């Protein structure tokens, strides 16, 4: 089924879920009944007035053409070329002459750096060729990485369905390799969360984390090596995963610290999924568990490109707070996090994405100037995060509606093709 074939009511429902709104919340903002929203989403009531569609689009922060299933015009700064990635994912014929493995590894490494520096336009152009090459090389490790990069970019560009396809391909290629499967599960969880499928994301993320983390990282097994979280953590390991563990026999296996970083990332993604399900207590427990894993990492080679560590945990805590509606706590945590030394070491993509989330938190508390500062800071760190992502565009639109618009936002609105 193409986008044009999807009933308008289902598109309304999909965007409502993406905006983390219940039917009652949408009804309240439209000043209509919950029953009216339910009938629209089920197709029991026809949306045949453009003025009503415009009103819905305004509340859902999308263009009316999106709800109508019509082709959107591409605003300035938006990355195009996704069709080339779609075509590469649709290929089932194997290229006859893939590059040597060393050359492919170099290309994959370059693609990761391009993503982490938020050069999304460049990455869109690189990915079709990289996918074709990786699909012909039969290197599971490199193909999983190529699919993960692709999925991460597609989720950024609001192509979550296609992102999920790429993540699912990564999972299939990983096969029985627990570490590769765990890295692929990160992308699966991200794509499902972007689709509003938080329960499914949680179901995929937690088993994957448990397969790569030692039993001592779970709160039910604290007798092995102490209490994680904000209390006493196990003794730090070195980069080989070695350390003084007292010879305890309750571990699943200490493994490599790179695997622990993958497991910690899975826990953070699971915490965000739990928050999306409304399970705030579980989200806090999962972030505490991830904090314990992070505290046990002295330093590691981030081969799997997770950016996991204590600062990543604090970023997740802020987002969990925002998701449960406590924007004030989210902003307090953000203020503390950006003063930590590790903040500047996070990739530009990571920091830019967080600042967009921070801008949304400022909007929740009615601080338009704070939201504007966060957007301008994000643009200075990772311009494509602000200028290419549909999510950022909706935040800019919300801030730009102020009269007069805060400093810097009018310029951003113009850059992304918005008019006040």
TrEMBL record:
Organism in which the protein naturally occurs: Micromonospora parastrephiae
Ranges for region Disordered: 215-255
Alphabetized SMART domains for the sequence: HTH_XRE
Domain HTH cro/C1-type: 12-67
Biased composition (Basic and acidic residues): 236-245
Native organism taxonomy: Bacteria, Bacillati, Actinomycetota, Actinomycetes, Micromonosporales
Pfam families (alphabetical): HTH_31
Protein's name in the database: Helix-turn-helix transcriptional regulator
InterPro entries referenced in this protein's UniProt entry, alphabetically: Cro/C1-type_HTH, Lambda_DNA-bd_dom_sf
